[in-house]
Amino acid sequence: MHSSNPRNIAVSVHNLSKQFDGFTAVDRINFEVKKGEIFGFLGPNGAGKSTTIRMLCGILPPTSGEGKVAGLDIHTQREQIKWQIGYMSQKFSLYEDLTVEENINFYSGIYQIEEDTLRRRKEWVIEMAGLQRHRGSLTRVLSGGWRQRLALGCALLHEPSILFLDEPTSGVDPISRRQFWDLIYELTGRGVTVFVTTHYMDEAEYCDRLGMIYDGKLVALGTPEELKKEFMKETVLEVSCEQPMKAMAVIQNLAAVKEVTLFGNHLHAVVPDARTAHKAIQLVLSENAIKLSRLEKISPALEDVFVSLIEAQGKATATGGEGA
Amino acid sequence: MFGRLKEMLIKEFIQIFRDPRTRFIIFLPPIIQLLVFGYAVTTDVKNAATAIYDQDNSVASRELTSRFIRSRYFKVKENIREEGQIRHLIDHSRVKAVLQINKGFENDLRSGRTAQVQMIVDATDSNTAGILLDYGQRIAQEYSQEILLDRVARSAGPVRAIGGLDLQSRAWFNENLESRNFYVPGVIAILLMLVTLMLTSMAIVREKEMGTMEQIMVTPISSMEFILGKTLPFALIGFFDMVLVVLIAWGWFDVPIRGSLGWLFLGTGLYLMSTLGMGLLISTISRTQQQALMTTFFYFQPMVLLSGFMFPIENMPEPVQWLTYLDPLRYFLVIIRGIFLKGIGPEILWPQMLALLVMGVSVFLLAIHRFKKYL
Ligand SMILES: Nc1ncnc2c1ncn2[C@@H]1O[C@H](COP(=O)(O)OP(=O)(O)OP(=O)(O)O)[C@@H](O)[C@H]1O
Ligand SMILES: [Mg+2]
Questions:
Q1: What's the pTM value of the predicted model, to 2 decimals?
Q2: How many CA atoms lie less than 13 Å away from A322 in the CB half-sphere?
C-alpha cells in the first residue's frame, strides 16, 4: 500500500469518509491506484462504490479524509481534476433527447476541443462505438451496448488520463461486455488509468488490482491472486471420476465436505480441511465402486472469495449482504 | 466562457424545440389565456337583461328608455305594469336591472322640476351592479344635460352657462370604462410570470432527475455558464411571448399602447430577471420535476393574488400589504399599465423599476449560491 514513488500514483485516498445525515456511506477508506492500472472496486449494493467515485470525481464533497486524483487535491482542486478525468456514471447520463452526434458535439464543445482534433476524436468515438449508421439517431432509441460505448466515448473526448467507470457493463449483453473490456485494455495500453466498479466476477478477474468494499469499509485490497490466497479459508477440490451424478450424491453426505457442485463432468467440493476431505472422498468412492481418475486442489474463483468475505463481515454486523 | 455558453445555448434550444411539452408551454398558454381574458372575463357589462316600468308613458319617458336601449348596455326583456312584478323578476334572476319612470316625469321635466327616475339593480354581483348603476347614471345625466342645453338655447335670454349642472364623472385613462384595457396588460404580466416560471423551474431539476446533471458536473463548465445557459433561452422566449401577446392585445383587442415600447421592453427585462431567478431558485431546491411544479404553483398563486390584479392592495389588511412589496408582479403591473394606458415612463415608474432590479439581482444571486452547493 505504501507506494515508493508518488509520481506513479494516479489516485490515493486517506481515511476518506462520507456521511449522509448521520448515515456513514463510506467509512475511512485507504487505497492507492497506480498509473496505467485497472483498479476494480467490488462490493454489494449500497456498499459505497458510487459514493467513493463521486467524491473522487469532485461532484460530492467528502465529509472527512484526504484524497488525490492525478496529484490534485479533491477538496481544493476539484475544477482542475475535471480536466484530467473521464467519468461514466452508473446510470446512463447523456442527453436522451439529443442525437448521437449532438451529444458528442455538446461534450466536445464543453471541453473546448480544437476544431481539427475534434473531427478526429468524433470519428474515433463513432467508430469505436460502432455508431456510424446511427449518428442522427436520438440517444433514447439506442440499445444498451451502444449507449454504453457512446457514454464511454463522450467520457474520452478530451483524452483524460484517469477514467472512472461506475458499473459500465451492467445490463449489457456478454458480447458487448467483451468488446467493452477490449477497449479498456486498449486504453490502459496507452497509459490511461482505469478505476472501475463492477458486480461481475469474471470482470473482476480482468483487473490488475481489486478493492473490496462492504458497508462503507474497505475489507480487502490486492491483486485477484493475492485475495484468493489470503481470504479463502476453505479449499476447493476438483474430482474427476466416472458416474459423476452418483459420485456427487455420495460425496455430498460426507461430514468433511461442505458443498459439492457439478462443473461439466467434474465435481467441485468445497472443504474446510483438504487432507481429511481428500481421504474421505477416496474412501467413499472406492466403497461405491466409482473409479476415480483425478483428485486435486484447485484455486478458488474470485466469487468464492467475495462471498466468503462478505459472509464473514455479515456475521460481524448481523446484516447479510447480497453478492453479485 | 462564451464558447462553453454557446454550446449550452445550442443544446438548450435543440432540447426546447424538440420537446412537444415545452413547445406547448411557449405558444399555447399565452394565446389561449389572452383570448379568454380578452373575451370572457371582461367585466364590461353588455346587454344586461332589463325590465322597464314606465308609469308615465310619455314622449320623454320613451326617449329615456330608448337611450338605455341604444347604449347597448341594457337590453329590454320585459315591460311591466305593476310594482309587484319588480321583485318577482329580480328574485328569479329574470332581469338584472329595472328602470322605473314615475308618473309625471315629462311634466316635471317641462316645468323645470327634478324629474324622478329610479333604477333597481340586482346587487348579488356587486361588481356588475355597480357598473350598471354607473352606466344608468351616465345615460340619465346625458339626457338631462341635453334637455337643459336645449332649454337654454331656446330661452330668449342671454345664453350663459349654468354652473353646477355638469355632474358627469369622467373615467380617466379608460374613458369607456373598458375593463379590457385595464385587464389585458395585467394578463400579459401574469402570463409572462407563468411561462417563465414553469420553464425555468423545470430546467435544472429535469437534468437532476434524468441523471444528466451528474455527467455535466464532472466537466469543467462553471456554475455561471450552466445557469446562464439555462436562463438565457427562457429570457428570449419570455420576450418572444411578450411580443406575441402585445401584438394580439394591440392588433386584436385594440388595447392602446400610449407609452414607449423601449421602456416597456426594459421593464419586461427587469421583471423577467425576477421571474427567471425565482424559477431557477425553485429548480435548485427541488429534487423532482413534480416538486418543482408544485412549488411553482404555490409561489405563483399568492403572487397573483397579492399583485393587485384582482383585488386592490389598499383593501388588504396591513400585514398582507407589506407582503405585496415582495411581489414582482405588483411592480410590473404598475409599469405595464402605466406604459400601456397612461403613456408614462421611467420619470414616474423608476421606483417600480428599481424594485424589480433589486429583486431580480438578489434572487439570481441566491439561485447561483444555492446551485454551487450541488456542483
Ligand atoms: N445522496 C444520498 N443521500 C443519502 N444517502 C445516500 C446518498 N447517496 C447514497 N446514499 C446511500 O449510501 C449508501 C452507498 O451508496 P452507493 O450508491 O455508494 O452504493 P453502491 O456501492 O454504488 O451500490 P450499487 O451497487 O447499488 O450502485 C447507500 O446505502 C445509499 O442509500
Ligand atoms: Mg453504485
A1: 0.75
A2: 3
